[in-house]
Predict the structure.
Amino acid sequence: METIKVGLIGYGTIGQGVIRLLRENEADITARLGARLALAGVADVDIDRPRKVKVKRGLLTTDPYRLINDPDVPIIVELVGDWPNVKKQVIDALRAGKSVVTANKALLAKHGDEIDRAAREAGQDVYYEAAVCGTIPIIRVLREGLAANRIEAVYGIVNGTCNYILTEMSAGRGDYADILAAAQQKGYAEARPEADVEGYDASHKLAILINLGFGVPVKLNQIHREGITRVTAGDIMAAKHLGYTIKLLAIAKRTPAGLEARVHPTLIPDSSTLASVNGVFNAVYVVGNMSGPTLYYGRGAGQDPTAAAVVADVMELARRILRGDPPRRLPSGAFRDGHRPDLKVLDVKQIETEYYLNMNVADRPGVLAQVAGALGKNQISIRTVIQRNREKGLEATIVIVTHRAREANMIKALAAFKSLKMVRGPVRMIRIENNI
Amino acid sequence: METIKVGLIGYGTIGQGVIRLLRENEADITARLGARLALAGVADVDIDRPRKVKVKRGLLTTDPYRLINDPDVPIIVELVGDWPNVKKQVIDALRAGKSVVTANKALLAKHGDEIDRAAREAGQDVYYEAAVCGTIPIIRVLREGLAANRIEAVYGIVNGTCNYILTEMSAGRGDYADILAAAQQKGYAEARPEADVEGYDASHKLAILINLGFGVPVKLNQIHREGITRVTAGDIMAAKHLGYTIKLLAIAKRTPAGLEARVHPTLIPDSSTLASVNGVFNAVYVVGNMSGPTLYYGRGAGQDPTAAAVVADVMELARRILRGDPPRRLPSGAFRDGHRPDLKVLDVKQIETEYYLNMNVADRPGVLAQVAGALGKNQISIRTVIQRNREKGLEATIVIVTHRAREANMIKALAAFKSLKMVRGPVRMIRIENNI
């Protein structure tokens, strides 16, 4: 039986998962490939730290180039995270005639074009199913399964840490800071949680999804990004009262004016399937002009689920190698250069949506008239208002849901609120998506 | 720019959808392929009946062999449904050096092995994404996306007609017969609905999913099949009272004894994501040993959604042809012959699950003891009993939820009920799946 050798760079959580999967599912993999996958070696800067998943000493190396330059290794799996020399290693592996599997979303979001070019020049493949939503095969779905569609919209719960925190807050188990601390203890959030909770990770994934679904090589600074750090338990309760759940969504939406690309906390109807995606699970809701709405759900992180996505890519490369076919089955961005659609990424000021507003105001007659006036002057009409006393006669809370409005106008209205003395403290604004 | 010609056999609803999609999404398809897809011709037994989607007269033919034997046509799309000569046409197309895209689940479920063999001998591909769950790319998911997993279980809502009827019954809009009649009026059910409501269509799809997910070439008569015709509004209400929703599920489950393969109405917990899949939508819940639970959701039928799945397959073939690669990227069953796992399909008597029972009994003391006795004698223990008077002093209804039991024992218990005089009429039994 033929054997395909795989070189692994990165002996961390996911790397160990890959090694274990190759062992535990060996018979299953062989049944599908008609050949074996064998670990050629594992490179890591630290090979002495004890790991749960052991590897024979002879397979371990601190020099990734022992694998990158090994002529018997056609596939390199890169799982080292966001290190400075990763890009060089990936490009060097391609130039050395290897195809590469990576789970590195930051690398792809920042340097995807450069890596794609290197792969094309080297005549090799770069696969990255594990980079977005862990085990959910969303890359294949956009690149192949829904390929006959004009993609109209993508709405993704793509960050498990944020979804866990918001789920716990929705269950009334505390405010943001408490739950973040608990999540850090459980290992669901990093000690330095900014990449997750500030929406950076989600915007990296959205950049990849946009490239695949819409053919637009969007830059990270073209994606409007807000994290979940300012969502309060009060917002979640007010949203619930209105029939909404708050989720951090990565949104890409085709409009007549261009492409909306944004990551932010979002009110979605309780009846939406996405509203029932809880805890560390991920889901992506994709609307095609022919397929209509579709949804993909599964674990977005974790050792085994992520390893399963990595090895699925390795198997696809192995099948190609076993057939003796040339690489480059598809450009990694799914669209052909020279044929990319002319779709402009909109500034967030140009988007249109409904809004939720939550503000503390003086509990005096006339305050609602002032607030409504500031909205009306900016062409924003109100769908619902809920006013609640907080401290009798002193302060009240006003919650407003608007009709569809332009973000540029909302920005003006928010500025106008600042000059209203009866509005106390900052007004919290969260966007709403009603059609999912 | 290069052009790939596509020959279409079948000018019905889906065929027209394919033609319209190729026109409406032409620019999008070209952007992804870097080439054009062109309709070479459309064959149908009746080309005179007026259609909504028109085709130039010169492209129409009543002779499919004009396309099958056209050397300029590398891809044949077969969308004629369950006609007797379809198998021959597909095999002839393969032998004539074409790759084939089909949505014909009955053909694949009954003759998949023969067609696969013909494709292999001819060195051509057969793609069939549209055959299962319409627009949901579940074939690619099982063949590629989850390929690194040992698949533990598949639970599918794969028949839109049944799901529509059960959804309407759950909403209290009538009993089975009324809703079937309404569904027929709306076009959601056929005038001769047996293929759907008796579970034949679902078992065809399950056979395909089992072949892909478990590597077992299951025969249709190995799949236990029950339709929805005996589910009553009373069952649905009793299930709701117990926290369950009734769905027609196609189930494949790996157990230590072998593979369970069954299609039947099933009580699933209201909290299950599958319970919220309503109307004509389909969804498949797949559990991999590494990925864990994943879910795929979308329209399982309809002109546009099905056409999108057909054209996605055409595009994948076109990409391969444009690259100049040889066919046979994968065996259509995903597993290599000679490496198929040794997994026995279990008889339904061998399965183990929980059960719901609903029976009319005489409203007399001792009846529950008799019923419980018949279960106990067959090693079936009771989790919940609800007893309700129907006509005071005359008849009562007993609803029972059992603990996990063996179907062989349940069959004996059902036989024992028949000899109990206090049990009136047939006992309705519906299986439960609690772990989804």
In short: The domain at 3-132+303-323 of chain A is CATH 3.40.50.720 (Rossmann fold). The mean pLDDT of chain A is 94. Residues 311 and 399 of chain A are 48 Å apart (CA to CA).
